[in-house]
Amino acid sequence: MPTPKEDNLWANLRNPDEIHAERITIQRDEYLVAEGMIDQYLYIVEEGAFKIFYITEYQEQIIRFGYPNSIMNSPVSFFTGAPSEFYIQALKKSVLLRIHRHDFYEYIKQNNTFLLQYTQALEGIITQLITRETDLLTVSPTERYHRVFNRSPQLFQHIPAKYIASYLRMTPETFSRIRGQK
Question: What pTM was computed for the model?
Answer without folding.
Answer: 0.89
